[in-house]
Design brief:
alpha/beta, 38% helix, globular, 8 strands
């Protein structure tokens, strides 16, 4: 039987999904991070399939989302996008440390995945934590600075007032640069990384993600099986069932 437990892990609301008979054992762990304006419950199908394979899965609500919402409209939330991304990268270590303290995880078998904003968080976390053994970016973007520039342009075109001075914008770019994997791909250290992206995605563009993948190929020349990019020619900003199953298979292979 698969158990879905609602709990707070160091004050962070999360869903904990695991086989009931394995709940108290040290298990391989997968964190799954939801997308912008989404919430932890929206990715339970990933967690169920992974739990069926013997993984412990943690789906947290990220800052200002789900149980942590503050009533912001989408435009207001957009202005806090990078605050959410960086805050969540920090919270991943808090979550991992608490689960480690509880004796529930195998530290040599930890994976991370996410959709859209969750994929962006995943790629940034890879630049920060070597304890992540394998990862899946579903519609993610490794180019933090380029994506932030695109977001600012888009908001201005929509007539949204950006309440930041030029100095504050420069400070933001300085902060996110630290987590921009595109500028420090060596931090991957050959760890298994799967991308899934739809060509017709109008929210997080396909081309930069694929460009980054291609730039990584020489680094994975001795172990090409650890780097994969699944292109869906028909998909927009929604992961297909193929992407779901590929995510589960990736962790079965590498975590």
């Amino acid at each position: 039987m698969i158990c879905v437990e609602h709990r707070e892990i160091s004050t962070i609301p999360a869903l904990h999904v695991v086989k009931q008979d394995l709940a108290q054992k040290q298990l391989p762990l997968v964190f799954f991070i939801h997308g912008f304006t989404s919430a932890k419950e929206h990715n339970l199908h990933y967690a169920y399939l992974l739990a069926e394979e013997g993984y412990r899965v943690i789906l947290p609500d990220v800052l200002y989302h789900g149980e942590r919402h503050k009533g912001y409209c989408e435009a207001e939330l957009s202005l806090r996008f990078w605050e959410v991304v960086l805050h969540t990268i920090g919270e991943l270590n808090i979550l991992k440390d608490e689960l480690e303290h509880e004796g529930l995880i195998d530290l040599n078998r930890i994976g991370l995945a996410g959709t859209s904003m969750g994929g962006i968080i995943t790629l940034g976390a890879l630049s920060t934590y070597q304890w992540i053994k394998a990862a899946v970016s579903l519609m993610g973007m490794p180019y933090y600075e380029k994506f932030a520039e695109m977001q600012i342009t888009h908001l201005k075109q929509k007539g949204v007032n950006i309440p930041l001075s030029e100095a504050e914008i420069a400070q933001l770019f300085s902060q996110i640069k630290e987590f921009d994997l595109s500028g420090q791909p060596e931090k991957l250290n050959g760890r298994p990384l799967l991308f899934w992206h739809g060509v017709k995605d109008q929210t997080v563009p396909y081309a930069p993600a694929h460009q980054f993948f291609e730039s990584l190929l020489p680094m994975y020349g001795s172990f090409p099986e650890k780097l994969q990019f699944i292109t869906d020619q028909r998909a927009g900003h929604k992961v297909s069932r193929e992407g779901l199953l590929a995510t589960v298979d990736w962790f079965k292979k590498f975590v």
